[in-house]
Amino acid sequence: MQLQIGFMQGRLSSKVNGKIQAFPWESWKKEFEIAHDCGFSIMEWTLDQDRLYENPIMSEVGQKAIKELTQKYEISVPSLTGDCFMQAPFYKVDGSKSESLLLDLRNIIISCGKLGVKYIVFPLVDNGRLETQKQEMMLKDGLALVDDLLFQRGIKIVFESDFPPDKLKYFISGFSLENYGINYDIGNSAALGYNSKEEISAYGDRILNVHVKDRILKGTTVPLGKGNANIPKVLKELSEINYDGNYILQTARAVNENHADVLCQYRDQVINWME
């Protein structure tokens, strides 16, 4: 089996304003070259609400540059993490604010379609978590407005959720197979104390993308193997359901700015666990 291990954009750069994850404004082009030199062929793009339309993926000039870089360095961008949806959830505001954020969503889908991005990760965690039935209804109603566009562009929204297994199984059953799936985050599930076997048994057939990281129970991200995630067990369970999608390293940041070395070590760890 050929392992499709990629990385989250920004993990080959210094932190932006101290954040563990944010678009690397100063080094996003350089990351393609570094990734190629490290032997990576997959990158997951990051998109924040702040300066949304300045992100190169959102403009024709930027898209042209991205296409040139993907071809030059043989790096594909099959997925995008929409932290913007978590930072400014359209289903938690009303009226013109919600309409404006839904317009952003449409534009993001269109931009992704131009670059061949297949999956848009939609985080229903932290500020984006669903807390009421009204929010869940507003989410479904809003996404229904882009169903046709998703289908036309060949893009799926993959939810990353903090729901327990049975609740997430029920939740995803309300969304079509054609347009929606699940992004399974190994570290987040460990931090929440969930049982990976129960999760994968409940909704494994809807998992389309996987984030690889380790976290402490009810705590933060730590280096792979240092937290509560039993990553070898999870990888085996995913293999048993014939999961054949990508594994995206959303790992702890390098402490000494040796980002490439650390990311390569994490990749090699995952490969060893999968063999």
Structure in words:
This protein has 275 residues and is of the alpha/beta class. It has a domain of 190 residues: Divalent-metal-dependent TIM barrel enzymes (TIM Barrel). It has an eight-stranded parallel beta barrel with strand order 1-2-3-4-5-6-7-10. The model has no long low-confidence stretch (mean pLDDT 96).
Reconstruct the topology from this structure.
Blueprint: E1 5-8, H1 28-38, E2 42-46, H2 60-73, E3 76-81, H3 83-87, H4 95-115, E4 119-124, H5 133-144, H6 147-153, E5 156-161, H7 165-172, E6 180-185, H8 186-192, H9 196-203, E7 207-212, E8 214-215, E9 221-222, H10 231-240, E10 246-249, H11 259-274
Parallel strand pairs: 1-2, 1-10, 2-3, 3-4, 4-5, 5-6, 6-7, 7-10
Antiparallel strand pairs: 8-9
